[in-house]
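User: I would dearly like some help making sense of a protein record. This is the protein in question:
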Amino acid sequence: MYQDLAEKTAIVTGSSKGIGKGIAERFGKEGMNVVVDYLTDPSGAEDTKAAIEANGGKAITVQADVSKEEGIRTLMETAVNEFGSLDVLVNNAGFSESAPSEELTLENWQRVLDVNLTGAFIASREAINYMSENGVKGSIINITSVHQTIPKVENAHYGVTKAGLKMLTETLALEYAEQGIRINVIGPGTINTPANPVHEQDEETKKKTLAKIPMKKIGEPEQIAAAAAWLASSEADYVTGATLFVDGGMTLYPSQLEQ
């Protein structure tokens, strides 16, 4: 646990399920105030809120479309009005709609970019404005993927957003380092979530999945959450512009072991 996080306020986008839910719940264990964002899953958001409060934190749920400026502003206003500050922003919301590149429609491409990259930019901009104006030496954590580095077939738009988010992170980190606003990336590998229920795969598919992971095991949202808590805490106050891969070694390209 990180004592300096107690009573600080965080927004976690897309926190009704999966990685976002894990991060929000961990922040609750740290005694933080958490704005739980959701788009279409109010019951999941309420479950996250209940877990945060059971862990000792405070929480409020907000329905907001993070691809829209008005949605982001609603989240920011809720954090400040409800809890009095904004100290940590986690840009977690994201999705993909797989398609062969020759069949990828502009609508599909744009929808993924709007949520995964444009939304993170808007939220980061608004958080930086608040932190700068109020002298908050805050932390912004962007959730990307190993696919910011490793191409993923039939997911050109997804990979572009994750690589773009890495560069956005590095640019903003450089720009606002002197103000003490730290901006970092967590790059998850294969994590067992409702959107990616790896443990439910048949044995042959699971074998192929594990072959890509040197540690030969699937990650859990709690492991991403542990990295997020550390990056948000003062123990990481000399870390900015970094990518922390939590991937069981996937970015080491395990196919090289076969040579």
